[in-house]
Predict the structure of Indigoidine synthase A like protein-domain-containing protein.
Amino acid sequence: MLPLLRTPFASRSLHSFTLTRGIPIPPVNLNLNPEVKAALKRNQPVVALESTIISHGMPYPQNAEMALSVERIVRDNGAVPATIALLDGQVRVGLSSKALERLAKLGPEAMKTSRRDLAYVMSQVNDRSA
């Protein structure tokens, strides 16, 4: 079973979220990379890395090289990198090298997403929902 996180306002596991007032929120389609999942199970440090700089901050191939370099630095310092992106209607936590490369090649064609856009982007399953 995946860990349960408790905050003053909510109880949540990696697959469901319920407000403390008992109002259920549908589970998020969360896709954990096997390396990230294993690190969390072993209580090892995991560093979340956002993906906007990959898709919108640098041109290809420098964006892919930079992302791989940052992940290598995280690993060299004893943690597991977890680059987070929305791909194929899923929240991906920890990208495979293939997914990272795909996001890097999409570049600005990937939809830049804020909280306001999250539901819409999650409902889109195409190359632009990266």
User: Anything to note?
Assistant: The two ends are 28 Å apart (CA to CA).
